[in-house]
Amino acid sequence: MKTYNILFLCTHNSGRSIIAEALASTQAKGKFTGYSAGSTPGDTVSPYAIEIAKEHGYDLSKLRSKSWDEYALPDAPHMDFIITVCDNAAGEECPYWPGNPAVAHWGFPDPSLVEGSEEKKRQAYKDVMVGLKKRIDILADLPDESLDSLNIKAIHSQV
After folding, report:
1. Domain boundaries in the chain?
2. How far apart are CA 96 and CA 51, in angstroms?
3. pTM score, two decimals?
4. How do residues 111-132 score in pLDDT, each as one tens digit?
């Protein structure tokens, strides 16, 4: 079975894209290796995103907020899919991605904007995790010959 590389993009690469990286790498039947990056990465990764990655058995040493420029370098892993998970990143001009990867937008509300109790904030991240997991599972269930830009874009409307 072929393993596909997926790069999840979000502006700050601290929450949604980090969760997606962990889920794609651990929950997709071995079909994907997840990566994440941001247009303006922050200094830290959300503790709630780290908590979710840990719960799914993801190697926490891989988690850091990083620029999407890292994945446009000649020695970067080849990406088969580029998926934006926040509205800001979807509207930004992305770097050139070698190899013509399939591109899609799966928008999720920013859980870092939720105010209130620790439990309410934690639940906002879990809600994003559930939505991402559903989409990643649908993508993982597609036959290899169906993995193209039209199908990964359509997944957003299936959930």
Report:
1. 4-149
2. 32
3. 0.90
4. 999 999 999 999 999 999 999 9
Q: With respect to CATH, is domain 4-149 assigned 3.30.250.10?
A: no
DSSP the chain: ---EEEEEE-SS-SSHHHHHHHHHHHSSTT-EEEEEEBSS--SS--HHHHHHHHHTT--GGG----BGGGGGSTTSPPPSEEEE-SHHHHHSPPPP-TT--EEEE-----GGG--S-HHHHHHHHHHHHHHHHHHHHHHHHS-GGG-SHHHHHHHHHH-
Q: Which ranges of the chain have pLDDT less than 50?
A: none
